[in-house]
Amino acid sequence: MSPEEGFDCSGFTSYVYKTLFGIKLPRTARDQSGYGQPVSNADIAIGDILCFDWFKDDGICDHVGLYIGNGRYVHASSSDRTYFSDCGAVKEATVVFGRSPVISIRRIIP
Questions:
Q1: Selected catalytic residue, list 9, 51, 61, 87
Q2: Is position 1 within any domain?
Q3: pLDDT 10s digit of each residue in the chain, 110 long?
Q4: Residue 2 lies in a domain
Q5: pTM of the full structure
Q6: Catalytic annotation on 61?
Q7: Boundaries of domain holding 84
Q8: Which residue among 17, 57, 79, 92 is buried most deeply as judged by most CB within 10 Å?
Q9: 63 is catalytic
Q10: How far is 24 from 63, CA to CA, in rounded Å?
Q11: Measured between alpha carbons, how far is 27 from 60 in angstroms, rounded to an integer?
């Protein structure tokens, strides 16, 4: 949950909201997917949390990222550097609604 140790996805979103806004988010991606207010993809704004179901296709959030505008978001995969050398790194990616497994968008700051 820190830049020094590396981030997992929910650790990254928690760190950003705590550092920039003094807001403490729930620790897990699943819990963050129920926090704040739901937003439609048509109304998404910078800073909204994208909630994904990447791994089991069971409708339960297992990954989160922060929307940064223009169809892009930032996220971290895992702080465990055992498997991949870039784990814990923050990465930028494109979200394609309808093809990406986004199950919810949450607005934390109205």
A1: 9
A2: no
A3: 677 777 889 999 999 999 999 999 999 999 999 999 999 999 999 999 999 998 888 889 999 999 999 999 999 875 545 445 555 677 888 998 877 799 999 999 98
A4: no
A5: 0.86
A6: no
A7: 9-107
A8: 17
A9: yes
A10: 18
A11: 15
